[in-house]
Amino acid sequence: MKVLAAMSGGVDSAVAAARAVEAGHDVVGVHLALSRMPGTLRTGSRGCCTIEDSMDAQRAANIIGIPYYVWDFSERFKLDVVDDFIAEYSAGRTPNPCMRCNERIKFAALLEKALDLGFDAVCTGHYAAIVTDEDGNRELHRASAWAKDQSYVLGVLTAEQLAHAMFPLGATPSKAEVRAEAAARGLSVANKPDSHDICFIPDGDTRGWLAERVGTATGDIVDREGNRLGTHEGAHAYTVGQRKGLNVGYPSPDGRPRFVLEVRPKENTVVVGPREALDIAEIAGSRYTWAGMAPADPTTPFACEVQIRAHADPVPAVASVTGGELVIRPDVPLNGVAPGQTAVVYVGTRVLGQTTIDRTVSAVPV
Length: 366
Known about the structure:
Its main location: cytoplasm. This protein folds into three domains: 2-125 and 168-191, Rossmann fold, CATH 3.40.50.620; 216-273, Adenine nucleotide alpha hydrolases-like domains (SH3 type barrels), CATH 2.30.30.280; 278-362, Elongation Factor Tu (Ef-tu), domain 3 (Beta Barrel). It is built from seven helices and 20 strands. The protein has helices at 11-22, 51-64, 74-90, 97-116, 159-162, 175-184, 206-214; strands spanning 2-6, 26-33, 68-72, 121-123, 128-132, 138-142, 165-166, 219-222, 228-232, 259-264, 269-273, 279-285, 287-290, 302-307, 315-322, 325-330, 334-335, 342-347, 350-356, 359-362. Helix 1 packs parallel to helix 2 (51-64). The longest helix has 20 residues, at 97-116.
């Protein structure tokens, strides 16, 4: 097959590209220039699209012996990921930019261009597995080592995208083994730190970054009954489950800490309350997709597991499509779930689908 290897400049994508070559594929490496500031250098282990990363990817491609190109996707990245991130926060939701990047950049824009150029598949260094069922349908599954499993952030992939996806690291037992393999291959990225956090906010100060772009506006912090407890400088700076930096002038009657329960951007109001009020009995979203074949009748409730963060434990649940929404009811309440987050649904190790959470139902009503 003719394979386009997406090379971030990290060790995982480099080893994935090398394995694709060893498997006999005709491989071309490509680095996506996503930053609108191409001179930016990596700070610590943050980020994944700096000029330094591009050079690391080129060095790896040279050693592997494959052609290498840099494609400028910065404008698409700004529109589909960065601007979406700002809009979601401004609407009081908690977005996951890595999900959007995988959905709209790596497996939409990149795959579309790859297919137009005659490639058969896009190869990445994600830790996930693709399994073909007895009818020839491709399914997305967890990686063999759950500690490094990245199937959650790939839950947005559709059946068509899975048909052209390749994850050579899916069966690798550990990241240490990948690093050892990279070192044996002479790849200089063997000991390069993993990227983390949000790549376009290199200093990790999400609140400050948003304030520069959205601005600040004084608003009220209230309890669940609407009583004013304090003020804030912008509702966009708060997320559900947050405890620190609430600026509440006096303690709760029972002395227990308060947490952000809800963000109301239209009113510029932040609602706070006790930890137990964060327990969620139901989540639902209308923007849902299936990773491969959909259930035969998704309107009939089915048993599954739901995961709401990349590193969260899956929770047993019952799901169904009702009234145009994928509605998920966990067997035990989920804690601190916010609209805008992504709920990924599993059946065993298989990723069945996902939805962006539009609404939640508290297990502790007012």
